[in-house]
Design a protein that fits this description.
Number of helices: 2
Helix content: over 70%
Shape: rod-shaped
Order of helices and strands: HH
Strand content: under 5%
């Protein structure tokens, strides 16, 4: 069962020519580069999503702080006017 030049059988038996080795290395580098590009694109997308989430949570926190200040102000006013219950 003879395989194509540069295939696994040739590699296992040490029969790869320098050109075959170079082609194999070049294919591996191209695959590695493509994987790196996909990883980078994925990281960019994830960072953008996290940024949007943080921005939205900051806006919510600002609204919560504003509401809390208003509530404290209202309770303080009631207390100063002697309208506390209890």
């Amino acid at each position: 069962m003879d395989r194509a030049p540069g295939g696994p059988a040739a590699e296992e038996q040490g029969r790869m020519t320098p050109e075959e080795r170079f082609e194999r290395i070049e294919r591996n580098l191209e695959a590695t580069t493509a994987a790196q590009v996909r990883l980078t694109e994925s990281m960019i997308s994830m960072n953008e999503s996290i940024t949007r989430y943080v921005d939205a949570s900051n806006a919510r926190m600002t609204e919560i702080e504003r509401s809390l200040k208003d509530l404290i102000r209202a309770i303080t006013m009631e207390h100063k006017n002697g309208k506390q219950k209890g």
